[in-house]
Amino acid sequence: PCCGTLRYYRRDHAPPLAANRSPAEMRVITKRGVCGVLALALGLAATLHWRTTMSVQSELLSEAQSLGVVPTRQEVRKSIQAESDPGLARLAFARALLADEIDTRWLGALKSEELAATIAGSLPRLERARALAAAEWVQRPASWQAAMILGGATYLGWSRQQDKRLFRERAAWEEPLRAAVALAPGNPEPRRLLGAAYLETWFANPPEQRDEAR
Questions:
Q1: pLDDT at 177
Q2: pLDDT at position 137, please?
Q3: How far is 115 from 123, CA to CA, in rounded Å?
Q4: Which residue did the predictor score with more confidence, 75 or 144?
Q5: Rounded CA separation 195/80 (Å)
């Protein structure tokens, strides 16, 4: 009786073979298979993206600690870790590097020897911020932050070195800053940086640009 029941089940209840299925049934099966493959691919892509982001964040925080800069502070650490995109995490780090160098209120308490050493030590950090922002601006041409950091880090680095490129190659810092102003017209940060750069290069600016700087 068991064998008879099994033969009955196989004959009357087993799903039909592919050759016996209708075109509509085959389309449904195909769609299900494609959806399953897509779901698996998306899951793998999300996992890979998450792992890449975690790795980049870890590298940036280690670099910040080795440089001994402001990004080791808890609030900046949170800003890096809050970004779910590796590129945005790099921008957060570059922004922190630039902000640390712009805040120079504490430099007044340093002696001349300490001041010279501090300024020399700031140049690699500014160059790192510039390189990160330049790479991200290529990937995100509409990012006002990438443009601002690129222009600001270039300007500040050349200014501290008293590099004549500040005047000779002014487009390297001026164009990104002007782009940042255009991309974020309601944000005062790019305008302040551009204004500070125009103040330092005041006598090299044409009259119409002085009017704009005012």
A1: 96
A2: 95
A3: 13
A4: 144
A5: 28
